[in-house]
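Entry 14. Ran structure prediction on the chain below.
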Amino acid sequence: MYKIIVKHSYLLFLSLILIACSDSTNLKPEQEYLDVAKQKLDAKDYQGAINEYEELIKNYPKSQNAITAYNQIAGIYFENLKNYQESINTYKRLAEAFPDSKEAKQSLFMVAFIYDETLKDKTNAIASYKAFLEKYPNDTDPNDNMSESAKTMLQVLEGNLSIEDMIKKNIETTGTNDTVANEEIKTNGNLKKVEPESNDKVADDDKKDEGARQ
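Output, structure tokens:
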């Protein structure tokens, strides 16, 4: 009886090894997932493209290409499927999976932006801008003004103000028509008019980043 149990245990262990080996050999290269997803996206098979990107994320969770996949999925939900909540959820997943990346900051800003500009959900927009500023209180990259923009948007939402109201308030507070400050308010406020980047633009930017790292 003991020998039978040992034999069965051995066979089970061997089967598990064979299954694991089979799964690993069936893994496609990362680029193949991206290429197939792009083909399906071009064919307007949006769910098929999402499935390919999700497989890439599952099989290569720490890869730079996983960031590309998250961005592409979020873009498909936003641009093509008009499923804004799923776009938000995907941006949140990206930020959780890569918390120290520049894409995490962009993703959390997009969460607030979609609540604010697309869904007109003031409560969640305010909460999201506050959560964003708690993690990113200041901009450290001279080419990035998302934190300043978030501060402006938060003031607009909490004070029920327009960009023009903000400029008027600035004039009243300072007693002068500070052109530079007013232009900064306009610039930060104009981010509200910017839609998420297209899927092709995100993919091209990620390829450039990857080439720069090599």
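Residues 18-23 have pLDDT under 50 and may be disordered. Will compare against last week's run tomorrow.
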